[in-house]
Amino acid sequence: VVAYCVNMGEYSAFKRYLNILRMVRLVLLLENIPTFTLMYRCIKHILIVSGNAVTLLLMLLFAFASVGVMAFGGKLYQGNPELVGSDFLDEEIPWTALNFNDPILAIVTLFGSIV
């Protein structure tokens, strides 16, 4: 089946899912190795323990994004007379991609600041 799907060019998404299944199979095989089992348990434990911290981080990110949208939403757009001559409307550096005009862009902007 895999050899047949590799030759089919129009089913690239199907091949991607087959590769994911192959990786799952590899992980299941590696669980029999004691070193990998220890590493798997450690990573699983770290993810479980860090759940509360990640939840708190996401809640704070959403709260600050909401405040940013209320304070700065709609002020950064092309043609704003208050921004004429500033670096925000520079064509070479697209600062308008990271703004607080809507909640999704605000979260992306804050996530970029965190990273």
Describe this structure in words.
- There is one protein chain.
- The protein has 5 helices and no strands.
- With 115 residues, it is mainly alpha-helical.
List the helices and strands and how they pair.
Blueprint: H1 2-6, H2 12-30, H3 34-49, H4 51-72, H5 103-114
In short:
This protein is mainly α and 115 residues long. The protein has helices at 2-6, 12-30, 34-49, 51-72, 103-114.
Assign the structural class, choosing from mainly alpha, mainly beta, alpha/beta, alpha+beta, or little secondary structure: mainly alpha
Order of helical and strand elements:
HHHHH
Average pLDDT = 83
Number of DSSP helical runs: 5
What Rg is obtained from the alpha carbons, in whole angstroms? 23 Å
What does the overall shape look like? elongated
* Main β-sheet description: none
Low-confidence stretches: none
Count of β-strands: 0
The end-to-end span amounts to 42 Å
Helix share, percent: 55-70%
Which range does the strand content fall in? under 5%
Entry keywords:
115 residues; mainly alpha
